[in-house]
């Protein structure tokens, strides 16, 4: 049975320019229920992550300023959202949803967070609409609690997981693997354990062939006992911020490759949704829901 962290995060007002992309977080659960991919019992609503939890991956001073809404104005501009207590609470709930999802994944093989994938947040910074890095915090939690010895983070968003790379630089218990558009944001890349920078316009066949090879290489090299998957759908050819050219079918096959790799290795996987900025909200929601469908196909 799928277990999916859901947050009802957007009941408070957002700035006009952010309402459209954020609408997907309300629409994805509704679509999953409508299609029968999930049931009401699939969803759980997490609590707020504690200060002690978030500081497993983030610097305490940054976290204090974030929680107190006292971040430097330049940092707030870097994040891209005007800060509010509601927004910070949303982020804390997303982080805890990913932490809780790890434990569900260990029971069921796979779990999801309807939001998350906030991979641009580094140890002491927020960036690109990311305040806290949910998968980095959860990975640090698994290691800190001695639940896992070796974690693999697979980041297939069109943008490099720069915050995740920075947080785990020099920490061999977490292997960071990012496949992203080389000429896309962030323009100053951090160094993941394995970075694959793609040329603009790459399509389904070339992307999937490369990904299959790299997944095989990484699983053989790392031999993880837990996987995090950042499943951004901004790789679509319809995406306004991406520069790749995957179709919805290609994106679905991408997800299947990741789940097949995890299933074959006998390793649980937690999935956070990441980015998606196509002009039509239907394209975004369909692609995200396809990630859930891919998991059902592999794990049921």
Automatic annotation (TrEMBL):
<dbReference type="InterPro" id="IPR000286">
    <property type="entry name" value="HDACs"/>
</dbReference>
<feature type="domain" description="Histone deacetylase">
    <location>
        <begin position="18"/>
        <end position="290"/>
    </location>
</feature>
<comment type="similarity">
    <text>Belongs to the histone deacetylase family.</text>
</comment>
<dbReference type="InterPro" id="IPR037138">
    <property type="entry name" value="His_deacetylse_dom_sf"/>
</dbReference>
<dbReference type="InterPro" id="IPR023696">
    <property type="entry name" value="Ureohydrolase_dom_sf"/>
</dbReference>
<protein>
    <submittedName>
        <fullName>Histone deacetylase</fullName>
    </submittedName>
</protein>
<keyword id="KW-0378">Hydrolase</keyword>
<dbReference type="InterPro" id="IPR044150">
    <property type="entry name" value="HDAC_classIV"/>
</dbReference>
<dbReference type="Pfam" id="PF00850">
    <property type="entry name" value="Hist_deacetyl"/>
</dbReference>
<dbReference type="InterPro" id="IPR023801">
    <property type="entry name" value="His_deacetylse_dom"/>
</dbReference>
